[in-house]
Amino acid sequence: MTTQTNGFKATRRGFLAGGAGLTLALMLPLARGRAMAETAAPFAPNAFIRIGTDDTVTVLIKHIEMGQGPYTGLSTLVAEELDADWGQMRAEAAPGNDKLYANLAFGAQGTGGSTAMANSYMQMRKAGATARAMLVAAAAAEWGVPAGEITVSKGVIAHAASGKSSGFGALSQAAATMEMPADPPVKDPSGFTLIGTDRPRLDTVAKSNGTAQFTMDVYRDGMLTVLVAHPPKFGATVASLDDKAALAIAGVEMVRQISSGVAVYATSTFAAMKGRDALGITWDDSKAETRSSAELYDMLSTEAKTGGRVVEESGDLAALSAAATLHEAEFRFPYLAHAPMEPLDAVIEVKAGKAEMWFGSQFPTFDKPTAAAALGIKPEDVSINVLLAGGSFGRRAQGSAHLAAEVAEIAKAAGRDGCFKLVWTREDDLRGGYYRPITVHRLKAGLDADGALVGWENTIANQSIMAGTPMAAMMKDGMDSTSYEGAYALPYKMGAHRIGWAQAQSPVPVLWWRSVGHTHTAYAVEVFLDELLEKAGKDPVQGRLDLLTPEATRERGVIEAVAKLAGWKGRTADGKGYGIAMAKSFGTYVAEIVEVEDQNGFPKVTRVWCAVDCGVAVNPNIIRAQMEGGIGYALGTALFNEITLEPGGTVAQGNFDSYRMLRIHEMPAVQVEVITSTADPTGVGEPGVPPLAPALANAWRALTGKATYQLPFAAAVA
Amino acid sequence: MKPSLRALAVLLMVAAPATAQETLQPPAAFDSITDQTARSAALFEEMGKVLQSPRCLNCHPVTGGPTQGDDMHKHMPPVVRGEADFGAPGMNCSTCHGSENVSFATGPGSIPGHEPWALAPLSMGWQGLSLSDICVQLKDPARNGNRDLEALYKHNATDGLVGWGWEPGEGRTPAPGSQADFAALTRAWIDTGSACPQ
Amino acid sequence: MTTLTVNGKEVTVDLDPDTPLLWVLRDELRLTGTKFGCGVAQCGACTVMLDGMPRRSCITPISTAEGSEVTTIEGMQGPEVTAVQAAWAGIDVPQCGWCQSGQVMSATALLQMVPSPTDEDIDNAMAGNVCRCATYVRIREAIHTAAKTLEG
Description:
The complex is a heterotrimer.
Chain A: H1 12-18, H2 20-26, H3 32-38, E1 43-46, E2 49-51, E3 57-61, H4 70-82, E4 89-93, H5 98-101, H6 116-143, E5 150-153, E6 156-159, E7 164-167, H7 168-175, H8 204-208, E8 224-229, E9 237-242, H9 244-247, E10 252-258, E11 261-266, H10 269-277, E12 280-284, H11 293-305, E13 309-314, E14 325-333, E15 345-351, E16 354-359, H12 364-375, E17 382-386, H13 402-414, E18 418-423, H14 426-431, E19 439-447, E20 453-463, E21 496-504, H15 518-535, H16 540-547, H17 553-566, E22 572-573, E23 576-585, E24 588-599, E25 602-613, H18 620-640, E26 669-674, H19 692-704, H20 713-717
Helix pairs in contact in A: 2-6, 4-6, 6-7, 12-13, 15-19
Chain B: H1 2-14, H2 36-51, H3 54-57, E1 67-68, E2 73-74, E3 87-88, E4 91-92, H4 93-96, E5 102-103, E6 110-111, H5 131-139, H6 149-158, H7 160-164, H8 179-191
Helix pairs in contact in B: 2-8, 6-8
Chain C: E1 2-6, E2 9-13, H1 21-28, E3 47-50, E4 53-56, E5 69-71, H2 79-90, H3 100-113, H4 119-126, H5 136-151
Helix pairs in contact in C: 2-3, 2-5, 3-4
């Protein structure tokens, strides 16, 4: 499979530091003529906004909507500067188009790293301001009044002195002929009327009555449904294939070998399932991963003991030898599947040398050239319709573009034009790899007689997510920061410290999983720190505040806010345990406090308090929802989830009976406080996740005295 | 695809308790016990291999909801007994369990089904009880659904849901023996005075 | 041949009798509001009403639905589903949305049988519907809201 990097130039962190200045520089308003040619709407001042004669304002959303809320959030930014009424706003997915719809954090079209709001904040506001200025200019020309006297509010353009007023629609055609302002002013935040207030989501109704269209809902004339038999061991290949029985099943039209396995093409989903089940395949395991999870843990543990390559180093760790209290621990984190509710799927239609695709493409920049290469056509002959995704949590953000490659290979292998829908089953999803990497942290730290940190050593051993994919372009000197992000540059006064990373190798494909490296680094750091504080006889909240550096004001802010919200009284009260953890991820600061009960030897989380500082809170409603959801996602995972390789290398789990999801009766009450801030907004899709598991472990240890060094709890506690 | 799934299914079977592999001895095998009461109790103990198999015990809990699987783990999704031994309003037994066993379309295993499909009443709960206690309870019309011994025989010999225990669908170990074997043992147990083991 | 009623219309299909109702609804009738999430009755995304009771369509062979009345999310009518959908919109329950048809079906079934459910009633009825986005806090709140609406 061939992929192109397509100028994937900025590192994720690099851009986030860059901020809004860059967004202005890269704003790409379309020439009017071209915009008009591409859309039926009379007024399309740029690639993002279409205003219809019926007053509707449609915002083209360059980020995939997978539940995290960009349809609503980005539309809010436009509506704010346009002074539109929320009721006239609509959201639509922008198609795959690198030039028009790049994530300014990446320089390429894609969604990830909780960057949607951060990179769009100024771009979408400018887009809205542009449209507003042109509407005002049109009104001024038509009414013969000075533009400066015209006001716009809730979708009404008005001139008080003459008593004239109009909606957007009536002026939309005239607006399209106005000069586009080069740099329209945006509002001072004090003038915001929509940003900062709760907005109802634009996609709720369609998602409550079954009309929302996802990839699996696409049906086209003559379409065949395709299931692929993937190897049961990672890295295995097809040795021999007997497709006779499969082809004998009614509805099965073709069987083809492709690079990822054996594809069964059928006229219905059930026929494809039966056909796949009837395949006779022997697999060549010579290049496959045959080690079990237990063996992988042993290997990672050995690697972690080497200290790895230096990530961050300061001071002399010899200080540790003089420590009054020395503590050491090894933490183990399993492979994790993302398990989005909509399993992976994609539709492709090939006709006369061109291909059109419909799917939840999270990285169109990679998906398009990869599909083109598999089909042997030019990237510009592939078009991608980005559809709503039934969850992703990182699973659809593929540097390898393996899903696009698979569906394109399916189309190519068919040997004819046609439409094909690739569907993964839940078993394919859970056994299909692209997991959060299995990881070991080895920590050692010491305290002086006063309980202050004198030294801290942490070595992380795991596979690199980016190595071997186009993302490798983001690595520096062979170091993959997503493997250890959150373990270095900590906001605490660490004393002498050394953070190391040992890169492990395995054919098991790995991928970012909601909050990526922070999924394990926040746990190791915040649990280990909590243990140190306990040894020093310090309160978990006050102890953290005492350890924070003076610069860590936002970390301090969320810790203080969550302690106040929860009415923090200490580690235990009324037979319940309480734990806190704080993590900064993707520019957003989150602290959480967990309340836990002992239910027959297993933790039962009853309440969670959360304080989040994500800069300007564009839509507090969605921020709270993402914190609630992130907490539930993290809780289910911490309690129940692991993907285990059996001896020989097959995956033990297959469906939700063995990879168990959090259910409603296990969901705690959640209270979220969104910190008021004027800082530029940062993301909220991922940052709710990292603090939950360590806060839970700290609460559980407070209640039971038991430390949890291996996740999930179901494996550690049982 | 299939070989690996099969292999996994086999692995799961290996984990099944040893009792699940058993067959039932015919009544004649107990002829050597001359004391009729002792023979009757011994016959019931043989019946107990069925009564205490996971296929029967899973839906004869003493409280709350059912268990499932050969290892009798808590039913997932979690379900409660409900007022009619049929689950909760909004999610009762028939939300998932239909009129027949249904093999999964995408992997090994099946979801069990039968018409009707419900928990045994609380009075007939067996989990955690000794075989002796089960025997006493089984004969007690106040707790066995007002059945006399003949009705009990008919239940054991012909009831479809009882019979499901020997046709439990892919992924579940059947109860030992067959329903006919179980019926013959029940008949012999009644005929020998329906004594209970101590 | 199997004949059943779907959303009030009689439908006859000539399919493998083992075909799950889910795939008949989706592939044949193009009623795509009913979702595939697991295929093993663990997640509830495929919930429909079968003769008025909630039923996981992924493990319902079409042969066992002969003569039955099936209602999908597209065909739901009545005060309960209206109240549920209004409550869902009122506090923006859905995130990704994939599971929400099933959640709405189960919540509606609950309210049809228990007009003022307790938290425990909600747990018991809804524990079979997985939401990977974990919108559970809002699902619970919205069901209580819908119940209050129905009380009038």
